Amino acid sequence: MALDDHIERILWTENEISIRVSELASQISIDFKEFPSPVVVVGVATGAFLFLADLAKKIKLPIVVDLIRVESYGSGTESSGSPKISSDVKVDIRGKHVIVVEDIVDTGNTLCCVISHMQSKGALSVSVCAFLDKPARQKSHFELVGEGKFYRGFECPDYFVVGYGMDFAELYRNLPYVGILKPELYQ
Ligand code: 5GP
Ligand code: MG
Ligand code: MG
């Protein structure tokens, strides 16, 4: 079966995503242009890899890019509830403005974990740029740090979505759009 045939329905096309990512990058470029030191953009691996790449290319400021790895989901569709940082950032973020780039905010547990970790490492401010946000599911309330801002690509309905970096059992990350799998594939 070809990759596209695994998808029941597309929620955001490649073109819609591209337009929205440009808008987010423009807003970030405006909001951070007065800061004297380069902003540190921290992608949450692996899900944010395509969003991070597209966003970073469109930010018209000198930035530092790094990755953090957080494990919480396993291979299923339900969060384990206690995310753990399994690979930390390499750059020194003490006194820096940080933007955490996430693929999707579901329970908010991952963001809580990453934000407090950045704060404990001495970040001056922590912002979040989430490609998708599932408001129906939010459980843990996260506080941004300092003058931190929250950026969101799209509000996501309460489905388990795949594509544009997001996986089911490590597959489908390479889809250039976001969609829902055919129900038989979630078994
Ligand atoms: P949270 O900690 O907010 O519950 O979940 C965050 C992580 O769970 C996301 O970064 C993402 O990796 C994964 N996740 C949450 N919802 C979805 C979804 O609908 N589809 C996929 N593929 N991953 C999801
Ligand atoms: Mg993620
Ligand atoms: Mg996953």
Give an account of the 3D structure.
This protein is of the alpha/beta class and 187 residues long. Helices cover 21% and strands 29% of the residues. It is built from 3 helices and 8 strands. The site of one magnesium ion has 6 residues, from β5. The site of guanosine-5'-monophosphate has 21 residues, from β5 and α3.
Which features would summarize this protein structure in a list?
21% helix; binds guanosine-5'-monophosphate; alpha/beta; six-stranded mixed β-sheet; 187 residues; binds magnesium ion
Percent helix among the residues? 10-25%
* Cofactors, ions, other ligands: guanosine-5'-monophosphate, magnesium ion
Write down the overall geometry: globular
The biggest sheet, with number of strands, parallel, antiparallel or mixed sense and barrel status, is: 6 strands, mixed
Spatial order of the strands forming the largest sheet: 4-3-2-5-6-7
Order of helices and strands: EHEHEEEHEEE
What is the mean predicted local confidence, pLDDT?
A: 94
> DSSP helix count?
3
What low-confidence regions span 5 or more consecutive residues with pLDDT below 50?
A: none
